[in-house]
Amino acid sequence: MLNTIHIDAQPVSFTPGQSIMQAARAAGIYIPHLCYHPGFSPYGSCRLCLVKIDGRLQSACTTLAAAGQQIENNSESINANRRMITQMLFVEGNHLCPGCEKSGACQLQAVAYFLGILEPGFTHLYPTRAVDASHPAVMLDFNRCILCELCVRASHQEGKHLFAIGGRGGQAHLIINSASGTLGDTAISATDHAVQVCPVGALMPKHQGYHHPIGQRFYDQHPINQVGDANTITTGEIA
Amino acid sequence: MKTKLKVATTSLAGCFGCHMSLLDLDERLLQLIELVEFDRSPLTDKKHLGQCDLGIIEGGLCNTENIEVLRDFREHCTILVAMGACAITGGIPAMRNNFTLEECLAESYLNGIGVEHAQIPQDPELPPLLKQVHPLQEAVKIDYFLPGCPPSADAIWQFLQALVQNQPVRLPYTALHYD
Asked: What is the pLDDT of residue A233?
């Protein structure tokens, strides 16, 4: 059929120009992701949305849907890849869920729950990273950054251009566009989309947190494939 | 009658929160005691570990005694379970991994607020601290992981039931959490 792809044997129609991720979302099919957000052009860095398209692994957010594609998404072997990728994201940073105010509304944690991850799987790197608390209204904890680049894209869209990813490979890190290189010197505000869009607890508004008791947080009762991405919900509803 | 499973538990670099959660089983403890017999555990106060079917360990590794106890558990337990965030990831104690041991000791015992007669403890009875806090699976093989800070009594109950009945462990969505 014209303009139809098959995801796990289910026919899904698409409009030309849509990515596989967009077509899947329109059809209510969940493809795990962290760096994808419907409001921004795809970046393809987190690799969680890797699906098998006609036998080849490709990211669903950066690949256009094309008629006749047979796509494997929610299978044991694809989810095994995703488990490893997610475990690597956990061990390469310092993700201490018990002490993080984003816990319960964190998309990294929610994807790990969806995938049924019980253990780290790899040796923890315990990198030494700083916390930038220099701004009065926004804090940036580099320990939790997963380099999804959503704040970079959001800040560009807002015309502030506050962030970029610097360095390569294991040295890649978030850098701040200010004279001192710290957040305190920037024009960021807690209501900026760049802050709200962070899928983890790296960029957080100060002077709030733990608004929702355990049991009532965004991902406490239902998994991410049912309730969606916390960072696409209106400001102030979650955290 | 089927013989009871022998179970040992201990807390290493943890806060005993997981053991409190175990006590939260409340009246189910009476059902549990029909199925298992506790060997070394804070619940029995036995000091020496016998041969066990199941060892449940809370907390990560922060000193040399922790490693000794963990190895003893591995040697004596057929199945070893890492219970809680600290056992699995290092947890809150692993926040010190961002600092040197010298910095941590100085902050606690020399420069901390309200410290009097500042000195770093050096009693030979105190086990030496490790440079960094590590999760259990970085030192010995772990058979099962039960995450949570702490895992809820319901999660512990479902986990133990599955294990006792030799069934695969499958936690429902609301029982799987890292905090």
From this structure: 78
Distance CA A103, CA A212 (A): 11
From the list A131, A125, A163, the residue with the least C-alpha distance to A144 is A131
ipTM (interface pTM)? 0.94
- Give the integer Cα–Cα distance in Å for A192 and A215: 28
Do residue A97 and residue B178 have CB atoms under 8 angstroms apart? yes
Residue of A nearest to B91 (CA): A96
Q: Is the pLDDT of residue B118 over 90?
A: yes
Cβ within 8 Å of residue B72, ≥6 positions away? B49
Average pLDDT over residues B112-123: 93
Q: Which run of H or E residues covers position B35?
A: helix B28-35
Residues of B in contact with A97 (CB under 8 A): 85, 149, 177-179
Q: Is cis: bond before A205, omega within 30 of 0? A: no
Q: How confident is the model at residue A209 (pLDDT cuts 50, 70, 90)?
A: confident
Q: Sorting pLDDT into bands at 50, 70 and 90, what band is A1?
A: low
Region A82-100 average pLDDT: 97
Q: What is the mean pLDDT of chain B?
A: 95
Phi and psi at B42, nearest 5°, equal -60, -20
pLDDT at A35 over 90: yes
Kindly give, in sequence order, each residue whose CB lies less than 8 Å from that of residue B93, ignoring residues fewer than 6 positions away.
B13, B14, B59, B60, B62, B86, B133
Query: How far off is chain B from A66, nearest CA to CA, in Å?
Result: 35
Task: Tell me whether residue A189 is exposed, middle or buried, using C-beta atoms within 10 angstroms of its C-beta: 0 to 12, 13 to 18, 19 or more.
Answer: middle
CB contact under 8 A, A97 and B145: no
Q: Which of B14, B159, B36 is nearest to B86 (CA)?
A: B14
Distance CA A122, CA A90 (A): 9
pLDDT surpassing 90 at residue A239: no
For chain B, the domains span: 5-172
Q: Which CATH superfamily is domain B5-172 in?
A: NADH:ubiquinone oxidoreductase-like, 20kDa subunit (3.40.50.700)
